[in-house]
Amino acid sequence: MTVHPIIAALRRHKAGVVLIALQIALTLAIVCNAIFIIGQRIERVNQPTGMHEENDLFLITQQWVGAPSADDPAGVEKLDSMQQADLAALRNLPDVVSAAPIRSLPLLHSGSVGGIGLKPLQQKDTIDSNFYYGDEQALPTLGLQLIAGRAFTSADIQHKPMRDQSEPVLAIITQPIADKLFPQGNAVGKVIYLDSSSTPTTIVGVVARLQSAVDTAGSSLTWYSALFPVRQDANFSRTVVRAKPGRLEAAMLAVRPALYTVNPMRVIDEEHGVRSFADIRADAYRADLGMAILMSVVCLILLSITAAGIVGLTSFWVGQRQRQIGVRRTLGARKIDILHYFQLENLLIAGIGAAIGILLALGLNLWLIIHFEMDRMPVIYVLIGVLAVLVLGQAAVFVPARRASNVPPVVATRAV
Amino acid sequence: MFAYYFDLGLRSLKRNPALTALMVMAIGVGVAASMITYSVFRAVSGNPIPDKSAQLFIPQIDGWGPQQNRDGEPADALNYIDAMALMRARRATRQTFLYGLSMSVLPGGNQSLPVAVNGYAVYGDFFPMFEVPFLYGSSWSAAEDDGHAAVVVLSEELNQKLFGGTNSVGREITLDGHDYRVAGVARHWDPKPRFFALFNGSGFQDPTDFYLPFTRALDVQVNPNGNSCRGHLSFSGWNDWLQSNCVWVTPWVELDSASDVAGYRHFLEGYAADQQRAGRFAWAPNVRLRNVTQWLDYQKIVPTESRISLIVSLGFFAICLINTIGLLLAKFLRRAGEIGVRRALGASRREIYEQYLIEAATVGLAGGVFGLLLTAVGISGVSLLFSPEIARLAHLDLSLVGLTLTVAVLATVAAAFYPAWRAAQVQPAWQLKAN
Q1: Which one of A124, A179, A192, B308 has the largest count of C-beta atoms within 10 Å of its C-beta?
Q2: Residues of chain A neighbouring B384 (CB-CB closer than 8 A)
Q3: What is the DSSP letter of A166?
């Protein structure tokens, strides 16, 4: 079958052809960008934090009322003993495996970021890193995977007011920091300088992975984390608790009564005072997940509307061309020839639409890169999109085309 | 004639239920998607203080220098030293300096458990500057600012919680162990976004509970909700921290005329230049003076999700309309014979044109009603994409209902221009001959 008569016939339906082609082009542009966004968001949501069995974890945030000031030594000692009393009470709970004071947790969107350098009094820090502060129980409670060196022992732990700027003596860093600062390996035993300080901090261990506590928008900071053996004292405290498997809810319920028994003069927020890590994670990724769902819904509806549009217009054409189809059948065309005619016609229109759509898709992607700091879309997504709209066109055209092929030759002799 | 065409339109819709349903659904879904995302966008991109947004300015001074600031921009807040210098200079009609506080209050005597409350340490000018309405009492005076008075302004909500909504002016509350006398109770006031306190906040947080004098809050050393510091710090207590490069104070000034604004900018540059001469800053003056709308833009307060989803839904709506053009074309031209007869009986092109536009408008109206139902359902699902504090801002009100119907009808009529024109071009002789 030659394409020539199809093109000649399409010339008589310019408006319809332009509309279908345009619709396919726009659908392609939006669908492949949407699929790309969905893929990216899902990848981000699924990345592990580096904590083992993280769904057994929960975080307690509480503030003391009428607590002593952390700016004088006596106050600091008092605050520390209050924190120690809380920790002892929490560790004694029946459903709790372990508990540790902690400055922040991955994905909490609140934490401390500082600089790490390789020389004392460096003008500009070599890298920025998340600073986590905790005691000897922090590493096992979080379930981090130690791949070199050792964990902290209770002898390593210092306690300091939160505003104290003296540098910790020891640190555990993540593998990405070790790779960046000591590419030749063997980070354990080396020294680093925090925040352009003159006093060295010695690396005692390396953990595989620990995600950032702040929103890093995909920068290298996401995986640059350091843990210091410091229990921080302030008028508030955060504690991470690992519940026994399957006992998370019971453990969380037991927290408030236990802490109020130790000391009632404190505030534990109704909503966010005791939060499961699963909740923190869901909050952090809400927008990503919502975006993926929104984009999927938009894609589905868009594809069905475009398909319905193709069905509608092709049906109209078939109805209009009844007589011509009859004539062709009389002159010897088989049913399959009529079917192929409409299929080929659709392929032609969809092909033109897809060609324009590729340009639109790349343009839309470029625009998103400029305005929303999106990444460049790999070509594979465009190809998937092209394939999708071509298949969609063929599927949509099948029913009206088959109806056309069923037009009997005798129609040619009737006045329509 | 309009009523007759409208009736004809309805009949024609009934004749092709599948095609009609398709068009109505396409328009409904398209308009609903646009309206749902628009309702969120409208809520987050609104001007929180329309009548004064051009007179309120936030001065910024770079105290970190090119090595440590972000992309050459000064920090989003001031350190204590610069804030106090601006405060003492008093170069604006009104000025306030503020920072966020998290404190606790004992709601019912000393037997009850303390409750967390959040507020701001501000100057007395804060209330007239931001047009805070009062239910009882008033703000505190400049003399009380200078006297570091232990006074407090409560929100209507906290007054309800602590005093059952009665006039509590003159009574005392205990915040973090210190007593404060109630100077006033503010009527419900919660601008969204909370433009005046974007440092360490999304702009859509829980409503504020109370306001304390800035001077008093410093006296009792209430820590700010957040602060941001640079470089190697060497402080160990409150006073050292005040003198450090940590930024945490948000300044606001009210400037009434363009010359006042120019004057204040000049003053800021002069101040930064003085600091450079004095050796405190090792860099050229780097200052900004943005008004409320410029500040909201700079802070990118509209979430990316809101912009992207609005753009995607508008594109989606456009495709639905293109789809509608095609379907209307098919629907109208299928009735070429009918049009030919009407033309032969004396109907003018204009009348045909009108008839088909009105028919399209009925489709648009049906699409709008369907879209309205979808919008109502969709708005309750907004929390899927946005955090609860933003999702609760989206709601279906009368203006959104009107907008949904108007957009649906207008867009469909616009989509019908070409198909109706084609219908009006039908040659009566041709049609009659073919029949």
Answers
A1: A192
A2: 286, 289-290, 293-294
A3: P
Q: Are residues B157 and B238 in the same domain?
A: yes
Residue A371: predicted pLDDT: 84
Please indicate, yes or no, whether residues A84 and A212 belong to a single structural domain of this protein. Answer: yes
Q: State the pLDDT at residue B138.
A: 93
A258 shares its domain with A307: no
Contacts of B401 (CB under 8 A, 6+ apart): B372
Provide the strand spans (E) within B106-150: 115-122, 134-137
How many domains does chain A contain in total?
A: 2
Q: From CA B174, how far away is CA B71, in angstroms rounded?
A: 43
Query: Residue A34 domain-assigned?
Result: yes
Is residue A23 domain-shared with residue A79, that is, in the same domain?
Answer: no
| B313 and B195 inside one domain | no
**Residue B56 is assigned to a structural domain of this protein:** no
Domain final residue pick, A264, A297, A312: A264
Question: B418 to chain A: nearest residue by CA?
Answer: A15
Task: Say if residue A256 is in the same domain as residue A352.
Answer: no
pTM of the model: 0.79
Distance from CA of B128 to the nearest CA of A (A): 32
Out of B238, B308, B322, whose CB is closest to A23? B322
pLDDT of residue A416: 47
Instruction: Say which residue the tokens 């929390």 belong to.
Output: B383
CA B76 to centroid of chain Cα atoms: 19
Residue B236 in any domain: the answer is: yes
ipTM: 0.77
Whether residue A293 is found in the same domain as residue A219: no
Confirm whether A57 is domain-assigned. Answer: no
Enumerate residues 6+ apart whose C-beta is below 8 A from A344: A1, A3, A6
Of B254, B276, B294, which one is at a domain's C-terminal end? B254
Q: Are residues B128 and B228 in the same domain?
A: yes
d(CA A313, CA A164) in angstroms, rounded, equals 73
* Residue B128 neighbours by CB distance under 10 Å: 13
* Residues of the domain holding A109: 66-264
Handedness of CA A215, B241, B223, A169 (dihedral sign): positive
Phi, psi of B119 (to 5 degrees): -155, -165
Distance between CA B240 and CA B236 in Å, rounded?
A: 6
Q: Does residue B354 contact residue B3 with C-beta atoms inside 8 Å?
A: no
The answer to whether residue B288 sits within a structural domain is: no
Same domain, A19 and A118: no
Whether B64 has its CB under 8 Å from any CB of chain A: the answer is: no
Phi, psi (degrees; rounded to nearest 5) at B332 = -70, -45
Range of the domain at B172: 63-254
Note which residues in 247-306 of chain B have CB less than 8 A from chain A: 303-305
Chain A residues closer than 8 Å to B322 by CB: 19, 22-23, 26, 309
Interchain proximity A22–B322, CB inside 8 Å: yes
Q: Are residues A98 and A15 part of one domain?
A: no
Which residue's structure tokens are 């994409």? B385
Residue A218 touches chain B, beta carbons under 8 Å: no
Q: Which H or E run contains A7?
A: helix A4-10
What pLDDT is recorded for position A42?
Answer: 92
Task: Flag residues of chain A having pLDDT under 50.
Answer: 416
Interface check B69 vs A, CB under 8 A:
no
Min Cα distance B14 → chain A (Å) is 16
Residues of chain B below pLDDT 70: 108-111, 232-235, 432, 434-435
Tell me if A304 is assigned to some domain: yes
Check if the beta carbon of residue B48 is closer than 8 Å to that of residue B203: no
Q: pLDDT per residue over A350-400, tens digit each?
A: 999 999 999 999 999 999 888 887 889 999 999 999 999 999 999 999 999
Answer whether B167 touches A (CB < 8 Å).
no
Dist CA B48 CA A342 (whole Å): 57
- Asked if B313 is an interface residue toward chain A (Cβ–Cβ < 8 A), one would say yes
DSSP assignment of A237-252: EEEEEEEPTT-HHHHH
